[in-house]
Design a protein that fits this description.
The protein is α/β, with parallel strands linked by helices. The protein contains two helices and three strands; from the N terminus they run E-H-E-H-E. A three-stranded parallel sheet has the order 2-1-3, with helices on both faces. The mean pLDDT is 88.
Length: 95
Amino acid sequence: MSIVYLDPSAEPGVPVEPYLCRLSASDETPSIGLLANGYPDSVPFLGHLEAALKALLPRAGFHQYNKRNAGIVCPPDLMAKIKAENTALVAAWGH
């Protein structure tokens, strides 16, 4: 009896888009949004992340947001507020 190995990978169904970081290292005062998804501990996790990022980016400003429901996409009004107030965003999960 022989062993047959199957490769479950497939070609992507949509074109792969390269990640382009739009936050420039020369931006002296970036504003970074931190979006919690609503799972337990996502807010405390982002608090710890903010403290770590402040040590690396002392001139950065931070805004924390919480969509409060992990089962929905970010509401359009909250996304508009995030876009208006920040130059970068970190979204995080918690459990």
